[in-house]
Prior knowledge:
Blueprint: E1 2-13, E2 19-30, E3 34-38, H1 45-52, E4 60-65, H2 76-82, E5 83-86, H3 98-103, H4 118-130, H5 146-159, E6 164-168, H6 176-193, E7 196-200, H7 204-210, E8 213-217, E9 223-226, H8 228-233, H9 236-241, E10 246-249, E11 254-257
Parallel strand pairs: 3-7, 3-8, 5-6, 6-7
Antiparallel strand pairs: 1-2, 1-4, 8-9, 10-11
Helix pairs in contact: 4-5
Domain ABC transporter: 4-244
Protein name: ABC transporter ATP-binding protein
Keywords: ATP-binding, Nucleotide-binding
Amino acid sequence: MTGLMLDDLTVGYRGRRGRTVAAHLSATAATGRLTALIGPNGAGKSTLLRTVCGLQPPLSGRAMLSDGTQITSLRASALARRVAVVTTDAVDPGRLTAYDVAALGRTPYLSPSGRLADHDRRRTGEALEAVRASHLADRPFHDLSDGECQRVLAARALAQEPELLVLDEPTSHLDAPSRVEFLDLLASLAREQSIAVLMSSHELELVMRLSDEVWLLRGDGTMATGSPAELAAGGAVSSAFDRGRLRFDTEQFAFVIDEDS
Length: 261
């Protein structure tokens, strides 16, 4: 089942200084699969994610959820129940515990009193368990490591019970082992929670090894899509990222220095 579909989508900015960033994009991010958005710096990955999340309108075309609903047609409360977002913005929850932060994901479902009901507490606990962070529940959020914080923020997103989870550079502040672990976690969550997971990343080598599907946004505003193997074999990755003697080895899924050039 398709969790997100782009239909001839064009993204960018309006106004006197408006510009088109990427045009005529058609792609799908399937439920139960981890889809990675990659591309060179300045290609427009963040702009595309902001459009997909409903934070800015498209210039034309549509971004639709599984039932055909256009994201731009949803009010904020309805959108928060269907699309969850994890950004790289710093989070300062004061003295809140990890459990309290995860429970913030229940906000779209709360009554005007703002009190958590039993089912809200149960869903929060299930979300922490899903990201393997139950043992962090009682710890102050500000005491957690970067990797632990990312798990709790992912739990907050899961507590929203979304059908689409969008993450912008979720591994940017993590060390190498934590990056591998977190991407593996996202792939598992997509399958186990039956949601579509779309993330942007600069971690090309990890993405090519651990993602199910890849959206490659090129510098000219076009996009290639497919499995990691398909994009590597077709030359799209090399065309976008090879620089001088640095090239992407399509068999090793790693950058290498070409000693012969």
